[in-house]
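Quick review question:
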C-alpha cells in the first residue's frame, strides 16, 4: 500500500517493504528522518538511530509528537502512510524547480489521444489482424462480405451509428402504443361463412401488411447504406485507402 510513495522517495525496496517487521520498520524510520524529513538536527537523532535499544519505542513516540503525527504508535500502517506523505511534501518543497515543469501523465495521454484522433490515417489494410477483425465484426453484425475490407469497415460504421448508438438504442427501446383498428372498415375480399373466422382472417391480413411495411423499411435502409458507401468520393477501392 506504500509502494508509490516509497518509489517517489527512491526507497531501496519499495515493493518488498514490510512495516510489520520490527527491524525493517525501525531502519525505515531512521532512513526517513535522515534522508527526507530531517526534523531533528543530526546530533539529536542518536536515540532514534539506536534501533536495538529497549527505549526505542519511547524515542519513536516522542518523534511522532515532535512532527505532529496524529496517530498513535500502535497504528503502525496509518503512521507510516502519514510520515511518507510528510516526506513527499518536504521532498517536493526541496525540489520545486525540478518538478514544476514536469508534464502529468494525464496530459501526456491527452496529447497522445489528440495525435491518434484519426485512426484510419496509419491503418494497414493488408494486416491479417485487421482483416480478421473486420470479417469477425461483419459476421457478427450480418453485413454482406466485400473484397475491399475498408468498404466493409465503413458499412460497419454506418450500421453502428444508425442502430447501436445510445440514442438509437433508447429510441428503439421505447414502447409503441398501437392505435385501435376498426375491422369493419377493412374489406377481407372473401367470405368464409363464419363471422368469427372472417374477423380472425382480417386480423391476420393486417398483421401481414404491417410485417411487409417493416420489411420495406429495412430494404430502404439497406439501399441507403449501400449508396452511401458506393457514392462516397473519398473512398478509393483501387488504392485500398481512405482519403484523398
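Suggested answer, residue by residue:
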Amino acid at each position: 500500500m506504500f509502494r508509490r510513495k516509497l518509489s517517489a522517495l527512491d526507497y531501496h525496496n519499495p515493493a518488498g517493504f514490510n512495516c510489520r517487521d520490527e527491524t525493517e520498520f525501525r531502519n525505515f524510520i531512521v532512513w526517513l528522518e535522515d534522508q527526507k524529513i530531517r526534523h531533528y538536527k543530526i546530533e539529536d537523532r542518536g536515540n532514534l538511530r539506536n534501533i536495538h535499544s529497549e527505549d526505542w519505542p519511547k524515542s519513536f513516540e516522542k518523534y511522532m509528537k515532535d512532527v505532529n503525527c496524529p496517530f498513535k504508535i500502535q497504528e503502525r500502517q496509518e503512521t507510516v502512510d502519514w510520515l511518507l506523505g510528510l516526506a513527499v511534501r518536504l521532498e517536493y518543497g526541496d525540489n520545486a524547480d525540478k518538478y514544476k515543469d514536469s508534464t502529468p501523465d494525464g496530459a501526456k495521454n491527452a496529447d497522445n489521444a489528440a495525435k491518434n484522433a484519426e485512426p484510419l490515417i496509419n491503418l494497414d489494410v493488408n494486416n491479417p489482424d485487421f482483416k480478421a477483425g473486420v470479417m469477425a465484426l461483419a459476421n457478427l453484425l450480418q453485413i454482406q462480405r466485400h473484397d475491399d475490407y475498408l468498404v466493409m469497415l465503413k458499412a460497419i460504421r454506418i450500421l453502428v451509428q444508425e442502430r447501436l448508438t445510445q440514442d438509437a438504442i433508447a429510441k428503439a427501446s421505447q414502447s409503441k402504443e398501437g392505435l385501435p383498428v376498426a375491422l369493419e372498415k377493412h374489406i377481407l375480399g372473401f367470405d368464409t361463412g363464419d363471422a368469427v373466422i372472417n374477423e380472425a382472417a382480417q386480423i391476420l391480413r393486417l398483421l401481414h401488411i404491417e410485417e411487409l411495411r417493416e420489411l420495406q423499411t429495412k430494404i430502404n435502409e439497406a439501399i441507403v447504406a449501400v449508396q452511401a458507401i458506393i457514392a462516397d468520393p473519398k473512398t478509393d477501392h483501387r488504392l485500398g485507402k481512405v482519403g484523398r
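Why it works: DSSP finds eleven helices and two strands in the chain. The longest strand covers residues 235-236.
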